[in-house]
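Inputs:
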Amino acid sequence: MPDQLLYAMEVTLNGLMAGVMYALVALGFVLIYKASGIFNYAQGVLALFAALTLVGIQQGQVPFAHLINAVTGLHVSSFGFTVPSILAILLTLGVMVLLAIVIEKLVLKHLVNQAPIILFMATIGMAYFLEGFGDVMWGADIKTLDVGLPQGISETVESMTDSIFGYGFFIDNLDIVATLVAVALVAALTLFSQYSKQGRALRAVADDHQAALSVGISLRFIWILVWSIAGFVALVAGIMWGSKSGVQFSLSLIALKALPVLMLGGFTSIPGAIVGGLIIGVGEKLFEFFAGPLIGGATENWFAYVLALLFLVFRPQGLFGEKIIERV
Amino acid sequence: MNAMTEGYMTADGRKIGGVLMELKNITLRFGGVVAIKDISFDIRDGEIRAIIGPNGAGKSSMLNVISGFYTPTEGSVWFKGYQRGPMRPYQVAQLGIARTFQNIALFDGMSVLDNIMTGRLTLMKSGLLSQALWWGGAAKEEDEHREKVEKIIDFLEIQNIRKTPVGRLPYGLKKRVELARALAAEPKMLLLDEPMAGMNVEEKEDMCRFILDLNDEFGTTIVLIEHDMGVVMDLSDRVVVMDYGKKIGDGPPDEVRNNQDVIDAYLGVSHD
């Protein structure tokens, strides 16, 4: 096989893996948008907050240490113990559920029946608040997250492809894990929404609020449930991205990468989020590989957005989104 | 026992029980608009009770008060002998009061079967964790509820569209699916907001048959709003007539038909 083709294959594989990471973030958006029609600007910050909390719990940090020190003159920073990864993840999940309840009680409850733009503005507010709150709670320094996921280049893949093609592919172990986790997550979410009573209630609310009320579904419970699930997805995305590039403020900006994914896949489709993520991931890697050298590189920064723009012109509802039909 | 709690026999020999719901001096205002003005009436166990009146008379508002979508400005709602506090619609549904809507409110993206299954949500007992992990009674419970739903599907003769997404169904069938979803909750009381609006004669006849059958077979109390006078007179045991938010008549169909106020409201009065 010619070298060029092999490189392209490797790049495609890497693109697929990167796409999965984008899809993980986009998934959180889709869940909330489907159930409540809210575009949740805070989804990226939720991922950041989840990752910060996870690291904090794992390392036994005292929450609000700076605040406590400043007010009381003490010098506390750590409880002096570490928490096992699994336990820390479960505790963080608990915190995310708690956060969902607080968001419902303090924000959503008071904005029932408001226009989508109002709710969108509220999520922008939430994003800034949470960002600051995360800093105050756990400190603003860059943290490394290690929950025991394998790091580095996968030697198995390298030696396997080497024996087949005579050229070893460089694939990140973490990316492989992320892919497996994403597949499991999507499968679990699909099963839950299709076959459980709460999943059915969730789909019902997504479809028609009034009808959902008439069959005895509490909208508030469903909103708490949806935001908890979105918090859970944010936690998974936070773990993957945090393990990859450290836990820091820029983690919340991955939400921006989810935007083109959503425009491609459609805001209302879970498979859409996955396929959209993969297309963006592969697209930007391949474009960089083929066209990058011709136009001076650094195409990965803008390719996704240009692609999204094209989609907006020719297929505004995305690949899988519900077609907007207006009755006249 | 006083007269209020005793039942009566209908002309076709069905026995109607005591008072199931009583509405006392209900007034409903939206800002300066008075939608319902001091209306009282009762609904008896096993009865088919119709609410009629010209457009804008406040019939749908009345139904919304009963189903908890509106909270009355004044007055009280008594159900099974207890006064009902201010309630959210989902809590009313959990009491065993199901409803359909004037402009069909179904879950368009879901199949007929799934739509009807949502009607049983209030009856499902297993918790979130058990459902999420499909563990404990969850699977067994799902089967039992599925069985009940199949019975309703048979009853309403919609077997062949079981798996069809509701959004693709014609209007008449959607109405029937909505009725099926309401029935799935095994309600004590069923509220039907214009169940026959926009239907052709054949569809209306089917719907009438279903309403009579389900009242007969399950003993469900039915409150319905309907414009087709023929249907109302045939179906109902007692009729409340509303006009401009006020009650102008209440009684068996024959009595109401001959009420001068009712005739005036429907045909108009000459002002000479």
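Chain A is about 70% helix and 0% strand. Flag for discussion at group meeting.
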